[in-house]
Prior knowledge:
By secondary structure, the chain is mainly alpha-helical. It has 11 helices and no strands. The chain has one domain: Serine Threonine Protein Phosphatase 5, Tetratricopeptide repeat. It has helices at residues 5-21, 23-33, 38-51, 53-57, 61-75, 80-94, 101-119, 129-141, 146-159, 184-202, 204-216. The radius of gyration is 16 Å and the shape is globular.
Amino acid sequence: MPIDQQLQRVLIGEVARCMVTHAEELTALDQAIGDGDHGLNMKRGFEAVLAELDKTAALPMNEALKAVGMTLVMKVGGASGPLYGTLLMTLGKTFPELPTRVAIAQAFSAAVDAVKARGKSDVQMKTMLDVLVPVLATLSAGGANLYARLRASAESAAAATVPMQAVRGRASFLGARSVGHMDPGARSSWLMIQTVVDVLERGGSAMKQDENRAASR
């Protein structure tokens, strides 16, 4: 589906609102194995994204992604800001002029590699990468029912972090006690991916909902 300016606005707005809505859940997950601030930090960052939504939505998609990433770097504390900021800024730098599935997968691959380098981490370390990497593999493979398979990939990958022992981040200090909890970064990545897929799948109806929301303000 072509990503025009209106759909771009819906994508950014829906992802931001999702993060704000799930702030308490993300905080609770982080309280179990981390600093307990993931949800609050993400909420602060994405509220700042929402405050600039009209301005950001008017930019070309690549510039909009970089702008959102920069906002997260500046507003989100802890490791999440730099990591999500790196993901989105790199995605913006490599986002294709013609957003085919193959071209988007290539851009997403570059963004995931940048997160690996920034966090000095990889899969099986109980981080957001445990969701991003499987989702990238699903996107790269393509095929039938892609939206449904992307959602399923993100969900199952996040669930797979529960039995893992953390190797990176504050959770790694807990050792075996980090087992039995979903990684909060994996959950926020799952939520983001699910929201993007939902908006793209709904297409025109998602844009209509955004118009109604704007009219009611």
